[in-house]
TrEMBL record:
Gene3D superfamilies: Putative cyclase (3.50.30.50). Keywords: Extracellular matrix, Secreted, Signal. One of its GO terms (molecular function) is arylformamidase activity. This is Cyclase family protein. It is found in: Secreted, Extracellular space, Extracellular matrix. One of its GO terms (biological process) is L-tryptophan catabolic process to kynurenine. Its main location: secreted. Residues 1-22 form the signal peptide. The lineage of its organism: Eukaryota, Viridiplantae, Streptophyta, Embryophyta, Tracheophyta.
Amino acid sequence: MRALQLLLLLGMLLSPATLSVARKPRRENRDREVYGNGKIFDITHEINPNMPTWESKDGLGQFIWLVDSMKNGSKLNSSQFKLSTHTGTHIDAPGHVYEEYYEAGYNVNSLDLDVLNGPALLVDVPRDSNITAEVMKSLNISRGVRRVLFRTLNTDRKLMFKKEFDSSYVAFMEDGAKWLVENTDIKLVGVDYLSSAAYVNLISPHLIFLKKRKIILVEGLKLDNIIPGHYNVHCLPLRMIGADGSPARCILVK
């Protein structure tokens, strides 16, 4: 009887259905974040229904629909999606906060790809403060550094993984933005939540950063589990006429 039970169990394990399940790729192999033997880091948040969106309690919600489906008889699968241009990891264009720039066509197509690609510095911001002038001074960022990614308490709190928008996120205050513009060579500012400006000081930092159209803001970066230091950043927006911002795919290369 025992031998018969073992044979039956073996037959179940070797059945076509079981082997089919075993051959399915594991999800973690499809959604990698580190490539190239640990030298390439994907710092883009996955766009998903449960990610936060601006001032929403309910998150992004459904954003993609399968219009043509092979399950329903179509010859292929084809989807449509609808997103804010400031969804997830995204880039702001000057027309986001300046009407005259928007009317003049300074949209994402006008952004300098040289600024969005090249050597970058990842720094840890003191965890007890928004990014003020005093905080900027304390970071001791050298002249000549053109691209800086600021990791803050937002990453520790995993705010980009929470559905409900959190207005207590950490970002730049007006004096911090002004100090950066006047005392550094930074042209790419990267932050780890949906805005580079603190909620209590929302517009003025954007105006300061984008006034001369020389600084590019990359917001909503995924910076957890990465050692601070020097990397090469590559960040590309979609090429869309009239867009005041765009979701982007960003990576760091060691």
